[in-house]
Amino acid sequence: MVVCSHPLTSQIPLPSAIDLIVSQLGRLAHYTFDAVLFSAFLAGVRRSTGLTPSIKPESMTESPNVKSWIENYLWVGETIMDQSVALMGSSGYFERKR
């Protein structure tokens, strides 16, 4: 057993269980936001160029669960894109130029 006798180490508080849980929730929220942002980016690419990720069973997997998960993930991006466009369209800070 190694005992550290440095005077500063006795003053550093150890993180509590609540601190660790909050840290993990923060990390989860960050990854979720990144995933939703990327899904919205894919929705924007689809709308402006017509390009979509290929979800063919032979190219990804034959599992219907994976295909369903990918479709739901892309649906979230479409929904976020729709809501963002609606919010920006009703705002005075944006205008349509055609």
Q: What does this molecule look like?
A:
The structure is a single chain. The chain is an all-alpha fold and 98 residues long. The chain has a domain at 54-89. Helices cover 61% and strands 0% of the residues. It has helices at 17-49, 64-90. Helix 1 (17-49) packs across helix 2. The longest helix is centred in the middle third of the chain and has 33 residues, at 17-49. The radius of gyration is 23 Å and the shape is flat. The mean pLDDT is 83.
Overall geometry: flat
Question: In percent, how helical is the residue content?
Answer: 55-70%
* Strand/helix succession: HH
Q: From the helix content, strand content and strand pairing, which structural class follows?
A: mainly alpha
Largest sheet: none
Strand proportion:
under 5%
Distance between the termini: 72 Å
Average residue pLDDT: 83
Low-confidence stretches: none
Number of strands: 0
Quickly count the helices: 2
Using only CA atoms, what is the Rg? 23 Å
Pfam family, one: Mitofissin
Protein name: DUF1748-domain-containing protein
